[in-house]
Amino acid sequence: MSTRTPSDDELHAYADGQLDPARHREIEVYLAAHPDAAREVAWIRDQTEGLQVRHADLSPYAPPAGQRAADVRRAVRRRTARRMALAATVVLAFGLGGLGGWQMRETSIRAVYLPMADATQAYRLFAAAAEPTPAVDFASPHPAELQAWLNRHFVQAEPIPDFNAYGFQAVGGRLVPSEFGVAAMVLYRNAHGQSIVYYVRPPGNLLHFQDGNRRDGDVLTQYWKQGRYFYAVVSPADLPAARDIQRAVAPDA
Amino acid sequence: MSSLLTDEALDEVLPRLRRFALSLAPDPASADDLVQSCLETALSRAGSRRPDGDLRAWLFSILYRRFLDGRRRASRYARILEFLGGADPLVAPSAEEVAMARASLGDLGRLPTDQQSVLLLVSVEGLGYQETADVLGIPIGTVMSRLSRARKALRALNEGRIVSQPALRILK
Residues of A with CB below 8 A from B143's CB? Predict the structure, then answer.
């Protein structure tokens, strides 16, 4: 017999039917001639059988309440839904944070730069003062003459508005310095000495300028871009007499 | 395929899974936790199952991974507590609980956990050596040597003897 003597492990594997068929047959032959080894195999099989018989009853291991597959599947699904909700919340929080941050950025930019703040200041300095004769460079009640004066300093400026219909008469024009270059203001007054200022200035190096309006205290500044200049009309914010002019300047305001 | 992971198929394996958990865990409550977390893992990644794989072996291997993870965590926790104050707050399962778990496993329950697992998987559940090796994450050679030792230990127990050496020497 040239059969290799089976190892202890091989006898177990043989008893468990875990060997490849060729080796299984070899050991079969070997066992026929070696009763000790055969007894060992028989013993292993007996033990296995005994174990299977003793443990055939699975009833002690019935799953407790809430641990059947359907229960666990439901729990998993609920948890998944909860996680999705949590994830959505996180995304939403980040989204709101980002959006808020963007808004803050816009707000802070606007806080640093107030469009046409120079027009508002010019109004406060020269027009709001209750002097009977405001300081103007060129006094004229006629829009045409004021236009000619304006055209000497600005190229292709828009026509000066006529607020006569609203009770505001042109008083005169004045040049004022601004950080963007020379600006011009035209002052209007009504019978009660209330003032409105029309303001023109070069754009400077501003790239982003949007038409709009802004209220600073009791003064409303409406501004827009037209051609090569920026324009503004500054008027008392709460003056009923100025309301129509404000509406005429910006119909949607 | 998740389509194979039906509730019926799972429920059929559940008692076996629970028995395996009881053989590993120190008390029935831990065993239930183990089964629960195994099922949850299986159900939440059902797609990763090979369609031709044996459901039982697959679940056993998940359960055994969870068991190892838990034991690693527990020992880390114990080390930290030991470091912090030396107290041992880990509530030991009551003797009664342990006895109950052991009683349900009968003779197997008196073997060391390592030997219990191989005997349970190979002799009782009838898994192949390779499957058993996969479940326990050990080489097939280790399965075989453990199996041989477990069988001899069990026999010695049943014969009322304390095992100290192989009960039978193979004669050449």
Answer: none
| Spatial CA neighbour of A223 closest among A107, A153, A122, A130 | A122
**What is the overall mean pLDDT for chain B?**
80
Which residue of A8, A11, A72 is in closest CB contact with B43?
Answer: A72
User: Quick one: average pLDDT of A86-101?
Assistant: 91
The tokens of B47 are what? 């797609």
Give A-chain residues touching B11 at CB under 8 angstroms. Answer: 63, 68-69
pLDDT tens digits for range B29-52: 888 889 998 988 888 776 556 556
pLDDT above 80 (res A135): no
> Which residues in chain B are closer than 8 Å to A13, comparing Cβ atoms?
129, 144
How is residue B127 written in tokens? 């898994």
- 3 state SS for A89-114: HHHHHHHHHHHHHHHHHHHHHHHHCC
Give the N- to C-terminal CA distance of chain A in Å, as an integer: 111
A13 → closest Cβ in B8, B39, B129: B129
Tokens of B64: 């055994």
- Residues 6 or more apart whose Cβ sits within 8 Å of residue A238: A218
Sequence-ordered list of residues with C-beta below 8 angstroms from that of A54, at least 6 positions apart, any chain: B106, B107
Using the predicted structure, report yes or no on whether residue B25 has a pLDDT greater than 50.
Answer: yes
Calculate ∠ Cα B157-B163-B165, nearest 5°. 140
Q: What pLDDT score was predicted for residue B166?
A: 47
What the block records as the tokens of A83 is 């996680």
**Residues of chain A positioned with their CB less than 8 A from the CB of B35:** 63, 67
ipTM computed for the complex: 0.76
Cα-based distances in Å from A135 to A118, A160, A167, A232: 18, 19, 21, 20
pLDDT digits (tens, 9 = 90+) for B54-71: 888 999 999 999 999 888
Nearest CB among A16, A34, A73 relative to B7 is that of A73
The 8 Å CB, 24+ separation contacts for A212-216 are A212/A115, A213/A250, A213/A253, A214/A114, A214/A115, A214/A116, A214/A120, A216/A114, A216/A117, A216/A120
CB pair distance less than 8 Å for A47 and B172: no
Q: What are the residues whose beta carbons fall under 8 Å from the beta carbon of A186, sequence distance 6 or more? A: A146, A150, A160, A170, A172, A173, A197, A198, A199
Question: For the whole prediction, is pTM greater than 0.80?
Answer: no
Q: At what angle do helices B28-44 and B7-24 cross, to 10 degrees?
A: 140
